[in-house]
Amino acid sequence: MEANEKTDRIVEARMKLKRRFEEKMAQTPSMTDEKPRGAGPTNRHGMPAVPVGQTVTSKWPVLDLGYQPNIPLDKWQLNIDGEVNNPVRLKWEDLMALPQVDDTSDFHCVTTWSRLDVPWVGVRFMDLAALVDPKGSATHVMCYGYDGYSTNLSLEEALKPDVLLVHTADGQPLPREHGGPLRMITPQLYAWKGSKWIKRIEFLSKNQLGFWEERGYSNTAYPWRNDRYS
User: 0.85 exceeded by the pTM?
Assistant: First the structure.
């Protein structure tokens, strides 16, 4: 009964967030761009499957800052705080007790390769946001990795239903070199917007630049506009 009640609370809070941000989400470029640049059949959002400048690969190249942290599951934790009413610190068992989502989406790297139709398992960002109840002042989030990485997202992007914190890819536990045990994915943006080895999500009252954004990468990162650099 307790688990059902927790799920009901998350669903109720999720729907509240959806109502609050659904108009902004619907107006984002990856949902409304009338002249998206790319090739191939349309994806589920109506955009070309392969954004401009991208090449499809079956491989999964490894990109990082030169450090791949090794976090045992019994030591792992995720802090969610900032402009929220109910900050939380999740252990691995807490994360796995949340509603789990199976989804298949595309992965677009700014270095010009794309992996299509990747099967993932994880937790929706929206459900994590529902747990902490963002304040009315919250407009953005900053995500931090165990490797010192950071990246920013507007809430209208972060709350999209295909933005997940994933622990499984291609039917296997997420490999360490790709951000395991847990990373964030952002299928409607370039992949650098999803932190590998994620350890903290900070809700912000205004936009702040993350690691690559401070070094000249785009603040918005829309693949179908070739929006790679500022």
Answer: yes
